[in-house]
Design a protein that fits this description.
The protein is an alpha/beta fold and 202 residues long. It has nine helices and seven strands. It has two domains: 129 residues, Rossmann fold, CATH 3.40.50; 49 residues, thrh gene product, domain 2 (Alpha-Beta Complex), CATH 3.90.1470.10. The radius of gyration is 17 Å and the shape is globular.
Amino acid sequence: MYVICTDLEGVFVPEVWINVAAKTGIQELRLTTRDISDYNVLMKQRIKILAEHGLKLKDIQDVIASIKPLDGAKEFLWWLREVTQVIVVSDTFSQFAEPLMKQLDRPTIFCHNLIVDEQDNITGYKLRQPDPKRKVVQSLQSLEYKVIAFGDSYNDVSMLQQAEVGILFCPPQNVIDDYPELPVVHNYTDLRKLLENYLFEE
């Protein structure tokens, strides 16, 4: 049996930090894991920028509350959940994910946690574990599941490489160029067709 492991941002919802950048006018916050492959470098930069501009957790949550799923995302996700088990494996944070999960009818999600002080400042973050996306796939494989994984960014690559089937979904050209061995699809229709080849082969 195949289990699906999927990224969240860029797959089912728009990138949170790009929306924050658009709302605040802070262009440096547009950088995501599509641009910077080292997640820790990226997050430390984001926290530094938030502190410099006096932005608090609630400011980010207010932006997230305005984000809607990508066109067709809910329908595609419901199809997936009807035919197999789905786990959203994200580098977002529990404090960000709640309104997004509600809009997607609450699929299972594994993500991280922010460290927030009494003044609502984001002061740090706690990852679930090192290389968390790959570890989820490895854990499922240890239970004798086969895994199909898809995502769009550098931080998804180790998950895609570990899975029996790894697929890049709507990635930027730099990720495609760096990992030419991974198949690429650009819409839910093509992704569904590709997944059906595996999900219904047994």
